[in-house]
User: Fold these one by one.
Assistant:
Number 1:
Amino acid sequence: MTFGVTEPAREMFDRSVLERLIERRLNDHDCVVLVGPRQVGKSTLAMSVASAFKGVVSLDLDKPEDARRVVDIDQLFSDCTNKLLVVDEAQLAPDLFPALRVEIDRQRAAGGRCSGKFLISGSASQQIEDLARKLTGRYSQIELLGFHILELPMLPRSDDPLAVISDDVPGVSSVDDFEAQKKLWLRGGMPSSYFASSDQVSFEWLNDYIRAYVDRELSGLTSSISSLEFEQVWQFIASQSSREWDWQKIPGKLSMKKDVVTRCVSLLKALRFVRELQPWSKSPGNRVAHHSKYYLRDTGLLHMLLNCRTFEQLEQTGCRGGSWETFAVEALCRSSAAAQGLFFYRDNRHNELDLVVEFDTTDRWGIEIKSGDNPRIEAGNQRAADELSVTRRLAVNLTGSTLSEAKGFEVMSLEAACNALRSHRIA
């Protein structure tokens, strides 16, 4: 459901980079499976990609007439010869996946590669992923999430997720950029939340979204977690977002058994609601952090669970800094497609970096995320960068405004840092 949104408003975001990525994968693979949380635009994106193909058979298995076509699977595949078959809500037809495996193998045996292509999506991504394992070696999986900061059309961005862009991309955001990013930060990237007619309507939609998972979706995903346990852990992660977890203490704080907490966290990660950022552990001789950090991947959901509807409330509750770090870490991680590893660094000498992006053993970036009116790079940030021998040091804040003490770090706005990561190639 959307609230007070006109279709022209939806043109504000540009997802053409994702469209081209899906098109390239379809060119290289017989089947592409789109996964991600509900309501992030998977179906819309699939249909947009399909519009570029000459022959398309499109099925929405929520519709009885389309569901009936899957019953006679041989006839369906015959109808799709030399065409793209798009199947939405594919989790409703689990028998489709083994049939796809047989069909792909049959076409490969007959002609070396499939004469048709298959694009699969659904609103229950965990089920889709489980079913897609029956296609191992025959498909490519693409993760789709909410809107990303680089999809704002006014921001400089590359057409190719890994294409090199010029070095003179401005690092300071304009006023318009700043306001658009603040809206994305506050409401999150779910289209219906972002495009809601007001912050209040966005907040109500996010509340309904969470309630749908807790009250209705959970029972179809697992029988080993109660809705109360699931919601409690989700709420707790929100309250601890950007902080390290001591797993010896967490179950006691929640009055739950450790295995229950572990199952809840694992499910939230599988549903793409939570990101685990592991500590850097490759520096011998130093006592480094051993506990992971957990972040909610969508700050709209974070703010809903924190009951913070405005930036003023985030400030009053002391949550603004953690919220900004959560927003920035997710945007930066999603921009690091070429990275081999993503970590944070902290040792017992108070040396730390919010994000370490390792492209290979000789090429890693150290990123410190800053907020507030007068942020500064601390000596511990500089020592951490030295300890890790980082090849590039970035200090990221919302606008790219100058820090009072940068200490050798390049200061840039979040979208400029995301663009730099996206365009970086391994030498």
Number 2:
Amino acid sequence: MDKEPKNKILVNKSHAAAYAVNSIRTAWLACHYPEIFRKSLLNVFIINQDKVKLYLSEIVQKDIPLLPPSVNYSEDLFSIENKTSIRFGLGGIKRVKKLALAIQDERKERGFFSSYRDFVERIITYQNGNKAAIESLVLAGALDDFNGTRKAKIAMIEPLIERLKSGIEYQVDGQSTIFQLDDSLSVFKDLEMPNIEEYDENTMYFKEEEVTGLFITGHPLDKYLKTLSILGAVNLSELLSQEDEITGESIPSAYLEKEVFISGILSEVTSKNSKSGKMFTFKLKDRTSEIRCVAFNKILTTYGEEIFKDNQLVTIHGKLTNNEFGDQIIVQTIGSIDNLPTDIKEIEIIVSNDFDEAKKQGIELEKALKDETGDTVVYCSYENKNGEVKKWNPSQFSKIHISYSVFSEIQRIVGERNVILK
């Protein structure tokens, strides 16, 4: 009877010892070979978008260069380049997985692609490529090495393929291509890249995400990162429960049941009717992960329904909860990220037009901000009886250190819409 529990304990201890050894080895690899270690993790979890997003965000935080996909340099999986950089794999692009190895084979057989036209010609002629795959490669940035905008390259695909198909019979035993033959085929030589402006920045990023599942060359939130950092925005990956690698048990986030300030892009927005009225559910995505959010009728009454659209960039103040739906944010305030400046230099506080109320607000503001000395200029404003806007710089808190807690406190005193960052 004594041996059975001892044996059980012995098994448990042996497992714990093995996990400990494995953890030490993993930590050593991560420390001494960060690029190889993270490249391997990306390839192991390449079909798990949440894991890939998490590891890519770690790569950015560790200042490891992440190179975009390239038809001349990418392999089918993530790879190491120049010993210190990680190159995105062609196999991670939608509609390209089958063609990824063919592109590598084409490079080995006939050399690097010299131009966009050269790529299209060779992939169609020798590797059975198609319009959909080329379009995905363009939108993913895999053809950015060549002249022309992504928008121009998309416009070029069909004319190139049509001319290739109509002239394919002129190829001679695969020894030359239609662009290398005599002047009778000069119509092909004259097909030049059109002068078309690039997609606007956000459209380019969203199209990139559409075909890779990720934002690679940039992110719509990037230009706001400094302001979001100052305001204490939390990465979504920090809000999610984690699985214990040894026990498999769920470890809740340190932010559980706490209020947080977050930002991201809305997706999968749906409206529902509940006992308390209309509500919206949606996913919020940032560079690191995504989380489910719920906005109840009170939020809709205050902020309107127009903001609840797919691909809308927002900031949210809410509470992290966990229930049968998993981790989710209960929205308390929401606003368009367009209301945030890319760098905070000034704060305008709009006080009440009522003298007594304005005096009360002034006392509260002085109490809240007197010890928050910093570099951000503060001025107050109000509208007088003649409709004129009067401004002044309060001597008690003329310059402050701005943070999310300070920002929230000012909003509490004068109202959320009466605090303008500039």
